[in-house]
Design brief:
With 370 residues, the protein is an alpha+beta fold. Strands 3, 4, 5, 8, 9, 10 and 11 form a seven-stranded mixed beta sheet that branches. A two-stranded antiparallel sheet has the order 1-2. A two-stranded antiparallel ribbon has the order 6-7. It is elongated and about 85 Å long. The N terminus is likely disordered. Keywords: ATP-binding, Coiled coil, Cytoplasm, Microtubule, Motor protein, Nucleotide-binding.
């Protein structure tokens, strides 16, 4: 969220407020445009692959295009993602392609492990969306849907969702499958629970661990021998005015919880921009607890503000722009995640020694065979 060069300025006609942003995409912007891809997908993929935490949040009123732009609703991605990507596919499928482009290019240098988690926060409850085993029929009724998961923090400050399933991903198809599974579970639940898919915050988290290959140890400085990073992709629930919606019962409760969590997110943003980092109220909602690492932490964070061009939505648009304007003022300090615990370091070195011994044995066998 740190300011970058060349911020375009938009202003409503007359003496209305003026907002500045890093980039503005208008109604003619295409998902596939290089600009959109470079600014959104590539920028955070690059940081993530370099070993920094990264995150992207889509904020805006209901129906403003958050899911469409993020590409959370991956539908048609098959094993060969490059061939199946379509003009309308959003950021996530494009990000998957650049991510696997990197892992292929770095395969001679690092052993890379990727894992994905997919959760939603609905009515202040954290639900796991990866509830099926890989390969299982994802249309089947999810067994553990509705289980309440807890958010915890490691001593290092790293936030994690306790008990959330992690799927190892070895190919773009694995990641697309995980997304499709999560979406199917969300859709099943939304059928049961009053269309809640747009009433919940959806969070995809990708963890990457990179361990240098023994043969490359001498080529790279020690701080690049081990990298661990986390990428969070967040499709926030739609912000809505409470008054005038006529919502009652469950719908009203959902609205209250969405507004409360978005308000708490706004409060954290305010505290961070006021420089009062000791009293950032992360603990006031599940959403802010999960996003603690990404907000005001050591992550590269990008907020996407989705707005409607219609006059009737002027007030909502103004609110979204104000929200994004404040978020933009947060200054994160990027930090490389290359620290290992003593135990991890011992295991890492042991694995290196084993690999070197294996390589030596193979070489010796080859020499003897000659
Ligand atoms: N740039 C766009 N081009 C074409 N169609 C779009 C675009 N943005 C959104 N849409 C369409 O508008 C509808 C609403 O968009 P979307 O579901 O992405 O909104 P949302 O902000 O995620 O809503 P909610 O808060 O309810 O989840 C969808 O049918 C989507 O396909």
């Amino acid at each position: 969220m740190e300011p970058r060069a060349m911020a375009p300025v938009i202003a409503p006609p007359g003496d209305g407020p003026v907002f500045d942003f890093d980039r503005v995409f208008n109604m003619t912007s295409q998902q596939a445009s290089r600009d959109m891809f470079r600014t959104l997908a590539m920028q955070i993929t690059e940081k993530f692959c370099q070993g920094f935490n990264a995150s992207m949040l889509a904020y805006g009123q209901t129906g403003s295009g958050k899911t469409y732009t993020m590409g959370t609703a991956i539908e048609n991605m098959g094993p060969d993602v490059n061939k199946t990507i379509s003009k309308a596919d959003g950021i996530i499928p494009r990000l998957i392609i650049s991510l696997f482009g990197y892992t292929a290019a770095a395969a001679d240098i690092y052993d890379i492990e990727l894992k994905v988690q997919y959760i939603e926060i609905y009515n202040e409850q954290v639900n796991d969306l990866l509830v099926h085993a890989p390969g299982q029929n994802i249309e089947a009724a999810p067994s553990s849907m509705g289980s309440k998961l807890d958010i915890r923090e490691h001593a290092s400050g790293e936030v994690f969702v306790e008990g959330a399933n992690s799927m190892i991903i070895r190919s773009p198809a694995d990641l697309a499958y995980a997304m499709q599974m999560g979406n199917a579970v969300r859709a099943t639940a939304s059928h049961k629970l009053n269309e809640h898919s747009s009433r919940s915050h959806a969070i995809v988290t990708i963890h990457m661990e990179q361990k240098i290959k023994p043969s490359q140890m001498k080529e790279f400085p020690k701080e690049l021998h081990y990298l661990r990073s986390k990428l969070q992709l967040v499709d926030l629930a739609g912000s809505e005015r409470a008054k005038g919606t006529g919502a009652e019962g469950k719908r009203f409760e959902e609205g209250v919880n969405i507004n409360k969590s978005l308000l708490e997110l706004g409060n954290c943003i305010n505290a961070l921009t006021e420089g009062n980092r000791k009293h950032v109220p992360y603990r006031n909602s599940k959403l802010t607890r999960v996003l603690k690492d990404s907000l005001g932490g050591s992550a590269e964070t990008l907020m996407l503000a989705c707005v409607s061009p219609a006059n009737v939505n002027y007030e909502q648009t103004l609110n979204t722009l104000r929200y994004a304007q404040r978020a933009r003022a947060i200054k994160n300090s990027l930090k490389l995640n290359n620290a290992m615990s003593l135990q991890e370091e011992v295991e890492f070195l042991r694995a290196m020694v084993n690999k070197l011994e294996d390589e030596n044995a193979t070489l010796r066998a080859q020499v003897l065979a000659k």
